[in-house]
Amino acid sequence: MTNLAYDDRNQDGEPVLFIAGRGGAGRGWHLHQVREFQLARYRPITFDNRGIGATENASGFTTETMVADTAELIESLNIAPVRIVAVSMGSFIAQELMLARPELVKSAVLMATRGRHDRAREFFYSAEAKLAESGAQLPAEYEAKVRLLESFSPKTLSDDAAIKDWIAMFTMWPVKNTPGLRCQLDVAPLTNRLPAYANITQPVLVIGFGDDVVTPAHLSREVADAIPGARYLEIPDAGHLGFIEKPDQVNKAALEFLAEVDGKPFRWAAAPSPHD
Questions:
Q1: Which of 26, 75, 79, 111 has the most CB atoms within 10 Å of its CB?
Q2: Within 13 A of 79's CA, how many CA atoms are on the CB side?
Q3: What is the pLDDT of residue 10?
Q4: What does DSSP say about strands 42-47 and 6-8: parallel, antiparallel, or unpaired?
């Protein structure tokens, strides 16, 4: 395993490992998830996947490499079997981890996931690969426009107050075209993995986002249908970053599911804003 940066909070609680999507740093979970899970008496652990942050120039890695990275992190922290909350590429990693190393995972919440390419996703993948291999860096404003359209629902994009800060943030910090980001593009179900998911035995909640154009909800539902006993929840008015766009709905669903699997009583109450 390459030396991955991680953050481990509230060590008295039961561990929950968060796995980010392509291009996402572990700190992305600190916007809305980490505090909520701490208040629910869990031990949230976040980390930067290979290809992000200090390892952004890494190359030559595969889905299997990142599954091995995640397994080694779980073992090094002695947290197996661990609860997993993952999104997009993180969900792809979690799905393969549950097949390769089932003893390491207790339960999983998989968001914005899929088990195969459809025609549109195949074209999107090819287009992203062409951009990465060209070495071109889009103007920050244009790249921000694409990210906004891919990340959020039309409802949020039409909300001036909600979208203002995201426009500023995406423009100020554009995605860098790095070797690591290009490699992460291949960390995905590039063939039909749905039949293999019939061998996943852990309790799983799959969450699809109703306005996700990157990983449409119907592809997430396919994953839930493929995993024996898995549940499916679709959250409306949410795009690919639904865990940021609709955090209360995501956190409530995830925490209620984990509590049920753990046999723990749980009553949802959104955490007060730190500014209140």
A1: 111
A2: 26
A3: 67
A4: antiparallel
Specify the amino acid at residue 218.
Answer: H
Q: Which residue matches tokens 């860098």?
A: 176
Tell me the pLDDT tens digit for each residue of 5-35. Answer: 999 986 789 999 999 999 999 999 999 999 9
The pLDDT tens digits for 153-168 are 999 999 999 999 999 9
Which domains are delineated in the chain?
6-118+180-262 (3.40.50.1820)
Q: Which residue stretches of the chain are H helix? A: 34-39, 63-76, 89-100, 119-134, 140-151, 154-157, 160-172, 179-184, 217-226, 242-245, 247-262
Q: Which residues contact 37 (CB under 8 A, 6 or more apart)?
A: 16, 44, 251, 255
Q: Check whether 274 has a pLDDT greater than 60.
A: no
For residue 31, which of 276, 246, 253 has the smallest C-alpha distance?
A: 246
Residue 175: predicted pLDDT: 84
- Is-contact 16 24, C-beta < 8 A? no
